[in-house]
Amino acid sequence: LPRVLSGIQPTAGSFHLGNYLGALRQWVALQDTAEAFYCVVDQHAITMDWDPEELRRNTLVSAAQLLALGVDPQRSSLFVQSHVPEHVQLSWVLECLARFGEASRMTQFKDKSQREGAGGSSVGLFTYPVLQAADILVYQADEVPVGEDQRQHLELTRDLATRFNGRFGDTFTVPAARIPQGAAKILDLQSPEKKMSKSLPPAGCVFLLDDPRVTAKKIRSAVTDTGREVVADPVGKPGVTNLLAIHSALSGRSVTELEEHFAGRGYGDLKKELAEVVLEFVTPVRARTQELLDDRAELERLLASGAARAREVAGQTVRTAYERVGFLPPV
Ligand code: ATP
Ligand code: MG
């Protein structure tokens, strides 16, 4: 079986539709055909300002949501990044192979560092893609299911793996990105020129755990375009196209079919129906997440067993990599 690794930040507590349609839906689907390692990347969540109590809470909420969405701990290893110290151990070696210039070219770093205040951005925000490379390489992953926005980071991961292998001998599998078609990039409802993101103002971001009334309101208030016809046109009508893409991804009906369905009707009808489609999807996910959170001991037990399985694989990789770079093995 091919091996798959992916991670998601617990920063906002709730995941959003972009996370689900761009990445998490594939996590669930891949469990049938791959050996999967899925983690809540809490260490990535401290690269920008954070609150410790909130981080702890959001880590649990994230794990519960993943289970509610269909990650199955019998078939996949689900764990918390900080429970597997091998990620950081490998990351140091990769940091010493990565070049300052290549890390400086990461567009997410440029975007996010601009949003930081007068204190400037952390060194962790800068080296974050290298830790992400370690997250992936430490499992010898063949594939990484992610959204379109992660393509550049995946390219860096591949470069670092290739560089290490070239210098120290074949050690790492060079992973491929697995980016879904159609829903690879869900756009913000208020600023449809940007990707939907938890780091933008919440009005444009549909969180899975939002109150149903909030969800309906966000969709009703989505920015649409001039004209009145419900047709997909990424350049002329990015807002409407995005709403159609979300509808199509959740309802399973093609965009062409939806254009016919909405022929002669307006944007209001599209939004009303989309709100129904979204609520039908999120309502059971919310309920299940709450149930799982109600039994915290069981949730923590699942995460501990996922981490134990992950450490078996990750420990082996770190031992090999440390030996190859010349660290004296501890006896
Ligand atoms: P941030 O904007 O702070 O980076 P995020 O919303 O991108 O947060 P992440 O935890 O960084 O959340 O991403 C988790 C996964 O969701 C990644 O695989 C990423 O590619 C995917 N993803 C995030 N936003 C979108 C989006 N708008 N459309 C499709 N996929 C997305
Ligand atoms: Mg992101």
TrEMBL record:
Residues bound to ATP: Q9, P10, T11, G18, N19, G147, E148, D149, I186, K195, M196, S197, K198, S199
GO molecular function annotations of the record: ATP binding; tryptophan-tRNA ligase activity
GO BP field: tryptophanyl-tRNA aminoacylation
Annotated Pfam families: tRNA-synt_1b
Entry keyword ATP-binding: yes
Recorded GO CC terms: cytosol
Enzymatic class: ligase
Reaction equations catalysed: tRNA(Trp) + L-tryptophan + ATP = L-tryptophyl-tRNA(Trp) + AMP + diphosphate + H(+)
Quaternary structure (record): Homodimer.
Membership in a protein family: Belongs to the class-I aminoacyl-tRNA synthetase family.
Function of the protein: Catalyzes the attachment of tryptophan to tRNA(Trp).
PANTHER family, per database record: TRYPTOPHAN--TRNA LIGASE, MITOCHONDRIAL
Protein name: Tryptophan--tRNA ligase
Annotated source species: Geodermatophilus normandii
